[in-house]
Automatic annotation (TrEMBL):
<dbReference type="InterPro" id="IPR023198">
    <property type="entry name" value="PGP-like_dom2"/>
</dbReference>
<dbReference type="Pfam" id="PF00702">
    <property type="entry name" value="Hydrolase"/>
</dbReference>
<keyword id="KW-0378">Hydrolase</keyword>
<dbReference type="InterPro" id="IPR023214">
    <property type="entry name" value="HAD_sf"/>
</dbReference>
<dbReference type="GO" id="GO:0050308">
    <property type="term" value="F:sugar-phosphatase activity"/>
</dbReference>
<dbReference type="InterPro" id="IPR006439">
    <property type="entry name" value="HAD-SF_hydro_IA"/>
</dbReference>
<dbReference type="InterPro" id="IPR051806">
    <property type="entry name" value="HAD-like_SPP"/>
</dbReference>
<dbReference type="InterPro" id="IPR036412">
    <property type="entry name" value="HAD-like_sf"/>
</dbReference>
<protein>
    <submittedName>
        <fullName>HAD-IA family hydrolase</fullName>
    </submittedName>
</protein>
Amino acid sequence: MSNTAFLVQGRAVLLDMDGTLVDSTAVVEELWIEFAHEFGLDPDEILRFSHGRPSAATYKHFVPHLSAEERKRLEVARTEQEMIQLDGVVEIPGARAFIEQLRALQVPHALVTSAPLELARVRMAAAQVAVPDVVIPADQITKGKPDPQGYLKAAAALNVAPEDTVVFEDAAAGIAAGEAAGAQVVIVGNTLPYEETAHPRIADYRNLQVRRSGDGTVNIEAA
């Protein structure tokens, strides 16, 4: 008898990065707190809003009085800091092995992140998690999470219907994006209280097993 329990089924896997595959919480929060202090804003409010969203959206929301050029300079400076502040950036436990399972079984999968492409590559390398062949970063879309554009674009790139994809997310904005795309959603970590969602959730990837049948159906099971 199997000791695993069915978690979710689909034909492709779409994954967020920060908080989902990679733990970058310390550096992300440190930079947002510095921004809050610089502009006399509430750090907690910024952290709540920014989680899972592109940084451009957070700057537009909290400092709308700045010109687009000034906000862009803030965004670029933040990315430059994030590119070099990599201490403590590690994989979510089991993420590396989970991606390796997807690759070994040739499961279509993509990274859909609110980070720009170069930062995504640097941060994934720091955490030693393989970057999927398909990456949809913040600088290749016009509408960030919670808009579903990134997940819809990833599904199209993999030639899979959005409703046949499984989205792994940790933040409310990303979960909303996955839902709006029509995907099945698996929540990683404990960002949301249990009563706020009916989606399956995992603490990390250490007990996940991936099975792919001959017709391309992918079952993800939890031990």
